[in-house]
Design brief:
Number of domains: 3
Bound molecules: adenosine-5'-diphosphate, magnesium ion
Largest sheet: 11 strands, mixed
Oligomer: single chain
CATH class of the largest domain: Alpha Beta
CATH superfamily of the largest domain: P-loop containing nucleotide triphosphate hydrolases
Strand order of the largest sheet: 9-8-22-21-20-10-19-18-11-17-12
Strand content: 15-25%
CATH architecture of the largest domain: 3-Layer(aba) Sandwich
Structural class: alpha/beta
Distance between the termini: 52 Å
Number of helices: 15
């Protein structure tokens, strides 16, 4: 048993929930590391949340430093660690210790057997499929997340640009789908892929269908086909031809609205042919003369039938070629709503929705969106409904975002039961701290691929530091102007 230090409180007050540990000479610990003390006849576990060296400043320190003479006096340096209580294991439960902690008590380093107790789903417990996330630091024990909890509450991945959030999301999605298949299940997954990072990997791995977002057609309300045609033909509203047109449109569409394209107009022409009146015949001639200025019907997948397309498979909505973002937002909203209606009515349909760069699609007030206000509002409200009520009804969102402060708070709070946070910018740290507590500070210094994980799907309710294991990597993207100037061939 390795004694790393002793319990010490500057204030003289000792509380069981949190205290400082003065580290013994030569010992070091890192944020996230587990320690223990013997109390109440048990091993009570603690976790390091901060490491500091304290040295009282001397009056001459600054003068010495100014003249280039550093006082390297390790005798006067006092390394300390702040720890927070994890609890003690009693049977299969983790309980909190509320008894006394004695000043100057020994503090021990947790060893592999301790970590096994804390970080493994207990043997014999019916845990169902679990998904590998990565290796716990320090110690290197595997951290696996329970699929049941992830699907019951959803997931949010935070991280600044290049911190590893897309890699984490992609690997979790791949492993989750693999585990479900291995357990004999047939998962359905919809991935919203803004930068074309998921499509290539998922289509190779799962023969995912990659749908260009601009081929996703929202039914919308339709247009007033009657007025569009009447204006195009230059008919006055009171003319006989206009009246014939109105009745032909009505009998074709069951109203005046529909999609204004050649398919609709051909159907109207058929009606006119069968009517046989003189007005109908002259109107039909007019329409044929103008047919070139009527758009071809759009080809694609109706957004409101996406539930059928995604059922039992993986579909990636690729947003890289979108030029009309309003239309794309509305189509995504409609597609998600169709899936949600299906999930509510069909108990054999369950869906994972993975959405990267989610702050763009569900922005908090004052955030950024790629679409105008109206379309943004509609998509955000759909996403809020899915985040708050979806998981309990068979539709679970996993989101990733680089801007925790700019995404709708309802969404992150709902999904905040399962958080993986990589390094984030200081402006976003506060929001991450609200969700995972003091350990959030540690992420500031993380290299890519490292994260703090706080998750009901993990065996331990405390946040743990993990190096995410990556087997697959996002397809490379982001060909900047510089890459183009230098003549790169593109990813
Ligand atoms: N878990 C990981 N293991 C190893 N390398 C990683 C890991 N996560 C990220 N990286 C590296 O960092 C790069 C950026 O990661 P990415 O997931 O695209 O970041 P983000 O989505 O946060 O911008 C990746 O291309 C990869 O080289
Ligand atoms: Mg990314």
């Amino acid at each position: 048993m390795e004694v790393v230090g002793h319990v010490y409180e500057e204030s003289g007050y000792y509380r069981p929930d949190s205290f400082d540990v003065v580290l013994r000479e030569g010992e070091s610990v890192e944020p996230g590391e587990f320690l223990w003390v013997a109390a109440g006849g048990r091993k009570v576990y603690y976790q390091v949340v901060e490491v500091v060296v304290r040295r009282r400043p001397a009056a001459y320190d600054e003068i010495m430093l100014k003249t280039g003479r550093a006082v390297r006096d390790e005798e006067s340096d006092f390394p300390r660690a702040r720890v927070e209580q994890v609890g003690y294991v009693s049977g299969r439960r983790l309980d909190s210790y509320t008894g006394l902690i004695r000043p100057h008590q020994e503090v021990y380093r947790a060893e592999e057997e301790d970590l096994n107790v804390l970080l493994s789903w207990r043997r014999g417990e019916a845990s169902g499929p679990t998904v590998l996330l990565g290796e716990v630091r320090p110690g290197g024990l595997e951290l696996r997340l329970r699929a049941w909890d992830l699907m019951r509450r959803g997931l949010v991945v935070f991280g600044g640009v290049g911190s590893g959030k897309t890699t984490t999301m992609l690997n979790l999605v791949v492993r989750l789908l693999d585990e479900v298949r291995a357990a004999g299940g047939t998962p359905s997954a919809l991935v919203i892929d803004k930068d074309g990072e998921y499509g290539p990997v998922l289509s190779e791995r799962f023969s995912a269908e990659v749908l260009d977002a601009s081929s996703l057609i929202s039914s919308g309300e339709g247009e007033d086909v009657y007025s569009r045609l009447r204006d195009l033909l230059g008919l006055s509203g009171s003319s006989r031809e206009a009246k014939a047109l109105k009745s032909a449109v009505m009998s074709t569409l069951g109203g005046l609205k529909g999609s204004f394209d050649r398919a609709t107009v051909s159907a109207i022409l058929e009606k006119l042919k069968s009517s046989g009146s003189n007005e109908a015949a002259s109107l039909a001639a007019l329409i044929r003369g103008a047919i070139d200025s009527i758009p071809e019907p759009r080809e694609g997948v109706p957004a409101n039938s996406l539930d059928g397309v995604v059922s039992g498979r993986t579909v990636v909505i690729d947003l890289t070629r979108v030029d009309d973002w309003d239309a794309a937002y509305l189509a995504m909203s409609e597609a998600l709503q169709a899936c949600y209606r299906r999930a509510l009515s069909d108990r054999s349909f369950g869906l994972l929705v993975a959405m990267d760069e989610a702050h763009l699609f569900a922005p908090e007030r004052g955030g950024v969106s790629l679409a105008e206000d109206q379309a943004t509002k509609i998509l955000r409200s759909t996403l809020k409904i899915v985040a708050t009520t979806g998981p309990r009804n068979g539709m679970t969102p996993f989101i990733a975002t680089q801007r925790p402060a700019l995404i709708d708070k309802t969404v992150t709070t709902q999904l905040g039961q399962n958080v993986v946070s990589h390094r984030v910018e200081d402006v976003d740290l506060e929001r991450v701290g609200e969700i995972i507590g003091k350990m959030a500070e540690a992420v500031r210094l993380f290299p890519e691929g490292r994260a703090v994980v706080k998750s009901t799907a993990a065996p331990l309710p405390r946040p743990v530091v993990v190096d995410v294991s990556a087997e697959v990597f996002p397809a490379s993207t982001g060909w900047t102007a510089l890459d183009r100037w230098l003549g790169g061939s593109g990813g």
